[in-house]
Specification:
The protein is of the alpha/beta class. Helices cover 48% and strands 16% of the residues. It is built from 10 helices and 9 strands.
């Protein structure tokens, strides 16, 4: 059954905005969450022009209580069928070799991991009570093996992946499907800030297509590109000193910004 009410966080740009537009058809309601008012309204307008009914919420997903209350109100009005937790931020170590620092590290864990939990947990009891629905979480290939130049981002995305894998096993008997999305590089404003090698980078349209096909098939894991994922997993299986040496060779820097 096609989802009729879809929640998308991080819908102001990137994968969230792309997925929102891909689901925007007549008869579908899209509830879109983001922090940038102008960009979120632009996404909503594009979806409305394609025939979808839209609602927007300006929230920081790291702020649990206001977000949770609003999501429950939206679900009470029209029950959610599909939840897409796409919101996220990135940062990295400094060009002078210093670490990210507590503030940037905390920001990434708060937005990426806690923001995902804040989005999903309020709605889970209702999904379970209805014995249906689908939840999708966006991790990253960086969550398969910690990257030395972006440790907090890697940690946050590893946490999202572990949380999603655990939820999938937990919720399967209730009829609620969970899809863990593990992408590599794709063309977004976040990737534009990345200075360094971007192997196997995909366009946003192709990325949306891959994710959408996986979600429609209710796949447990949507990991791509496979070669990059295999290489990252391989460095995790090697002796630590060797994996570390290989990872250090792929030096990069993430410019400041969100």
């Amino acid at each position: 059954m096609k989802p009729r009410h879809i929640l998308v966080t991080g819908a102001s740009s990137g994968l969230g905005a792309g997925l929102a537009r891909s689901y925007a058809v007549p008869g579908t309601r899209l509830t879109l969450v983001g922090r940038d008012v102008a960009r979120l309204e632009a996404t909503a307008q594009a979806c409305a022009e394609q025939g979808a009914d839209t609602a927007i919420g300006i929230f920081d997903v790291g702020a649990a209580e206001p977000l949770g209350e609003w999501l429950l109100a939206q679900d009470s009005e029209h029950a959610f069928d599909l939840l897409l937790a796409c919101a996220g931020v990135s940062a990295g170590t400094r060009t002078d070799g210093q670490t990210e620092g507590r503030e940037l590290a905390t920001l990434q864990v708060r937005s990426n991991l806690l923001g995902t939990i804040n989005t999903i947990e309020p709605l889970l009891p209702r999904f379970i009570a209805r014995n249906r629905g689908q939840v999708a979480l966006v991790s990253s290939i960086a969550g398969l093996r910690g990257l030395p130049y972006s440790p907090a981002y890697s940690a946050s995305k590893a946490g999202v992946r572990a949380y999603g894998e655990a939820l999938r096993a937990l919720l399967a008997p209730s009829g609620v499907a969970v899809s863990v999305i593990v992408p590599g590089f794709f063309d977004t404003p976040m990737t534009d800030r990345f200075e360094g090698p971007k192997p196997f980078m995909l366009s946003l349209d192709r990325t949306v297509g891959i994710v959408r096909r996986g979600l429609d098939a209710r796949r447990a894991r949507i990991t791509f590109p496979q070669l990059l994922a295999l290489g990252t997993r391989a460095t995790d299986l090697m002796p630590a000193w060797l994996g570390d040496r290989i990872q250090r060779r792929f030096r990069f820097h993430i410019r400041a910004g969100r």
